[in-house]
Amino acid sequence: MLAVIAVRLATTQQQTVTMSLIEARALAAAQAGIEWGAYQSLDAGHCAASTTLALGEAALNGFTVVVTCAAQSFATGPSTTGTSYVLQATATLGTYGQPGYVKRVVSGTYSSAT
Questions:
Q1: Which helix H or strand E contains 42, and what residues bound it?
Q2: Is the Cβ–Cβ distance between 110 and 72 less than 8 Å?
């Protein structure tokens, strides 16, 4: 009986560590989506309402990241304007309701004002 408890405890600990690693990878994928969206927005001067990224590199392989963006102009002076970009990135891996499913959401606001 003690051996069964030890095996279950070890298995649970291993699953906990594995899920923690996947959750950290999901957070990194969402942050990569925010950085990608910020670069695209600030470089082009506008942003797409929604873009889906399929990450296939190294530790982020298999994650799908949906980046949404909303732009808003604002006055920076009497005759000048800037643009604010509100970005949200949602990274997912797996199927909702199944073991191993993970989802992380990151948001950020960036401005073209100088």
A1: helix 2-44
A2: no
Whether the CB-CB separation of 103 and 95 falls below 8 Å is answered with no
Q: What is the pLDDT of residues 15-50, one digit of tens each?
A: 666 778 888 999 999 999 999 999 988 888 878 888
Nearest to 22 by CA among 97, 94, 102: 102
Nearest to 64 by CA among 21, 33, 85: 33
Q: Where are the domains of the chain?
A: 2-111
Specify whether the CB–CB gap between 111 and 81 falls below 8 A. Answer: no
Contact 37, 48 (CB under 8 A): no
Pairing of strands 50-54, 64-75: antiparallel
DSSP state of 24: H
